[in-house]
């Protein structure tokens, strides 16, 4: 007797003793009779031992018939897959599979189940732009203001992705335009970052708080500026956005625009009374941000508006140290010096502008600073002094320049203790020999 001719009860018994889904699947495909006989067992095995993964695969792919079979033979509609709390309804909603969504709802799937990247089925459909699925979920009592997921809410998701019709639909269903949470903090900031002018206007018309704080960029104005959306920035300012509001990575809107190099936006902010010397953020102030980015015209513009060239703060201490570290050759460094920047100002990571230029190997800037009376033996910063910085970096020409200008080869301090130890740590034999030839003490201890 051939295997397919065995009684059905015996064939089922054989399949029940197979320990893997792959084995059962292979067995069921031996012929058409076996497939029809064992399909139910295969789905039940999947539901019991694989967390109903067949249901989630079918929901993701929009396979309505497979979803029906998975549910009929044991899958839990609210079951979790290997991803925490990944409800099949959310997967189907993200894919825009309207018929599968309806089927799952008919089988009492929780329309507000939480999980996955988008937090809820409604947020998933809103983020992906599936308007019909959004309407279907709302018609089945989806919570329009449910919180969670990457975007925090369905409205923020639609706003971030530029789905205007869905944003309007959600607002018509009483979505809170000022709800907080998610990556962007709120819907207005999400739309502003994405450059979606019509949604920004829609949200403002519905009384979105133009100065709400939070999220990745800090405010809607910061978000618009960070992404270079000048028209939206103007729209927000026209709606009384606070140009001096603090927050976000760059601290304020002027520093944001200065760092990125948006000259027209910088002018717009200054024309609307932005504080040119406002402190905060990574760079400390707008002038430092522009100097770091090499934006010469913005540096000049800020100085013309009375930016303090010696203002302290930020990672690199001041604008001159920032420009010297980045290495914008003669342009911005010379401009700052011409405007009376203190070449020996202390502070920041490098301690001084000369140490910054020496650490980064900017020979022309180092020479310019020295020509303008930079102290070659100034102490401070991570490296201790300019010679230590040049020695560690292997910048032989700068090391020679500093020594020729009477840098102390035995000065102590900084992370490595001495110039000789710094050169040795960096493996720069030529500089080691240079320092020894200049009577560097080989016995100085860190």
TrEMBL record:
<keyword id="KW-0677">Repeat</keyword>
<feature type="repeat" description="ANK">
    <location>
        <begin position="382"/>
        <end position="414"/>
    </location>
</feature>
<feature type="repeat" description="ANK">
    <location>
        <begin position="117"/>
        <end position="149"/>
    </location>
</feature>
<feature type="repeat" description="ANK">
    <location>
        <begin position="216"/>
        <end position="248"/>
    </location>
</feature>
<feature type="repeat" description="ANK">
    <location>
        <begin position="282"/>
        <end position="314"/>
    </location>
</feature>
<feature type="repeat" description="ANK">
    <location>
        <begin position="84"/>
        <end position="116"/>
    </location>
</feature>
<dbReference type="Pfam" id="PF12796">
    <property type="entry name" value="Ank_2"/>
</dbReference>
<feature type="repeat" description="ANK">
    <location>
        <begin position="50"/>
        <end position="82"/>
    </location>
</feature>
<feature type="repeat" description="ANK">
    <location>
        <begin position="249"/>
        <end position="281"/>
    </location>
</feature>
<feature type="repeat" description="ANK">
    <location>
        <begin position="183"/>
        <end position="215"/>
    </location>
</feature>
<protein>
    <submittedName>
        <fullName>Ankyrin repeat domain-containing protein</fullName>
    </submittedName>
</protein>
<feature type="domain" description="F-box">
    <location>
        <begin position="1"/>
        <end position="52"/>
    </location>
</feature>
<dbReference type="InterPro" id="IPR001810">
    <property type="entry name" value="F-box_dom"/>
</dbReference>
<feature type="repeat" description="ANK">
    <location>
        <begin position="315"/>
        <end position="348"/>
    </location>
</feature>
<dbReference type="Pfam" id="PF00023">
    <property type="entry name" value="Ank"/>
</dbReference>
<feature type="repeat" description="ANK">
    <location>
        <begin position="150"/>
        <end position="182"/>
    </location>
</feature>
<feature type="repeat" description="ANK">
    <location>
        <begin position="349"/>
        <end position="381"/>
    </location>
</feature>
<dbReference type="GO" id="GO:0005737">
    <property type="term" value="C:cytoplasm"/>
</dbReference>
<dbReference type="InterPro" id="IPR002110">
    <property type="entry name" value="Ankyrin_rpt"/>
</dbReference>
<keyword id="KW-0040">ANK repeat</keyword>
<dbReference type="InterPro" id="IPR036770">
    <property type="entry name" value="Ankyrin_rpt-contain_sf"/>
</dbReference>
């Amino acid at each position: 007797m051939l295997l397919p001719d065995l009684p059905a009860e015996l064939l089922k018994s054989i399949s029940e003793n197979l320990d893997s889904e792959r084995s059962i699947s292979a067995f069921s495909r031996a012929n058409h009779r076996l497939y029809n006989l064992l399909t139910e067992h295969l789905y039940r095995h999947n539901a019991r031992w694989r967390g109903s993964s067949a249901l989630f695969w079918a929901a993701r792919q929009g396979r309505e018939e497979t979803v029906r079979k998975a549910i009929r033979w044991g899958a839990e509609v609210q079951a979790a897959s290997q991803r925490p709390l990944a409800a099949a309804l959310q997967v189907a909603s993200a894919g825009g599979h309207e018929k599968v969504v309806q089927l799952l709802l008919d089988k009492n799937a929780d329309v507000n189940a939480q999980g996955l990247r988008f937090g809820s089925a409604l947020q998933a459909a809103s983020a992906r732009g599936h308007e019909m699925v959004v309407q279907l979920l709302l018609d089945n009592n989806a919570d329009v203001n449910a919180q969670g997921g990457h975007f925090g809410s369905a409205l923020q998701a639609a706003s971030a992705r530029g789905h205007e019709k869905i944003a309007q639909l959600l607002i018509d269903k009483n979505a809170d335009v000022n709800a907080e949470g998610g990556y962007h903090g709120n819907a207005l900031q999400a739309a502003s970052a994405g450059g979606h002018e019509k949604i920004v206007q829609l949200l403002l018309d519905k009384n979105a708080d133009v100065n709400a704080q939070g999220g990745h960029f800090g405010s809607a104005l910061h978000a618009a500026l960070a992404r270079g959306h000048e028209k939206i920035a103007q729209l927000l300012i026209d709606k009384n956005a606070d140009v001096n509001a603090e927050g976000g990575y760059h601290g304020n809107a002027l520093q944001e625009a200065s760092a990125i190099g948006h000259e027209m936006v910088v002018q717009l902010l200054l024309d609307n009374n932005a504080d040119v010397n406002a402190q905060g953020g990574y760079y400390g102030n707008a002038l430092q941000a522009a100097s770091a980015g090499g934006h010469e015209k913005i540096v000049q513009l800020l100085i013309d508006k009375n930016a303090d060239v010696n203002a302290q703060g930020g990672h690199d201490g001041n604008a001159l140290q920032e420009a010297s570290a980045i290495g914008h050759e003669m342009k911005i460094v010379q401009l700052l010096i011409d405007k009376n920047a203190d070449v020996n100002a202390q502070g920041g990571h490098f301690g001084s502008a000369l140490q910054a230029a020496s650490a980064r190997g900017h020979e022309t800037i180092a020479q310019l600073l020295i020509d303008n009376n930079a102290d070659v033996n100034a102490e401070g910063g991570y490296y201790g002094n300019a010679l230590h910085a040049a020695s560690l970096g292997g910048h032989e020409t700068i090391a020679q320049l500093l020594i020729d200008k009477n840098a102390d080869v035995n000065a102590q301090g900084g992370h490595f203790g001495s110039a000789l130890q710094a050169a040795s740590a960096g493996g720069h034999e030529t500089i080691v020999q240079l320092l020894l030839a200049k009577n560097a003490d080989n016995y100085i201890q860190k």
